[in-house]
Amino acid sequence: MTDRYSDGSAGDADYSRIGEGYALIRRPDPRIAARILEALGDARTVLNVGAGAGSYEPVDRAVTAVEPSASMRAQRPAWLTPAIDALSDHLPFDDDSFDASMASVTVHQWPDLAAGLSEMRRVTTGPVVILTFDPAPPVHWWLMDYAPELFEIESRRMPSIPSIVAALGGDTTVETVLLPRDCVDGFAQSFFARPERLLEPEVRRATSAWSFVPAAAVERFVRELGSDLASGAWDARYGEFRGLTEFDGGLRLVVGRRAPGQPPG
């Protein structure tokens, strides 16, 4: 997709429609944030591409944020620097402008994944840190039974981990990031032990894939999950999820470092 929505959203999701209240649900979880900080290493200057409302931006570094959606830029808290209106595949910076760069659960929204990652590599001397979900869930879990359409959509939208690794090139590693049961960041997978939360419209709206699920399927999901929770059928079948302290929902941290002699971009 190359056209931009009315608020500048450049991906397939229209954040002028679904972005309201996003920052209230999609808050940075400190345990995930710690993994990102570790991956950024000792970088002092950091570029955040597809920065949204600023989740996971380190507050102890000099951060430059890029975000095309006006709706998301408006939700950035006052203590973060304003984001630049630009696209991932045309970053307005010189080669080697930043010590590190990052992108948090956003690469599936980019019009051109390879171009965006190449641009991040071009402007970054150190690590390029990508937080994303594997489009192939590592385990079968209860949400896949109630909303199979959601996972069919995500399997088409989320780029494969190998494609990200290949685009970054150099010395690239992939780490599993387990989701804690009380995860603060409200993407759908974080509610593996709290199914009731996914009955809330504002929680579903904070995961862009729900905006592509047909209305009839969403209504069926709410009706069936609500009924099973009320009757105890959900707990009888899936109750073990409530006891899990952490869960592999497919969240991955891909860290690319420029190989010796590898040119920018």
From TrEMBL:
Gene Ontology MF, one: S-adenosylmethionine-dependent methyltransferase activity
Classification via Pfam families: Methyltransf_11
GO biological process, one term: methylation
Species name: Lacisediminihabitans profunda
Keywords carried by this UniProt record: Methyltransferase, Transferase
The protein's name: Methyltransferase domain-containing protein
Domain of life from the UniProt record: Bacteria
Domain Methyltransferase type: 47-124
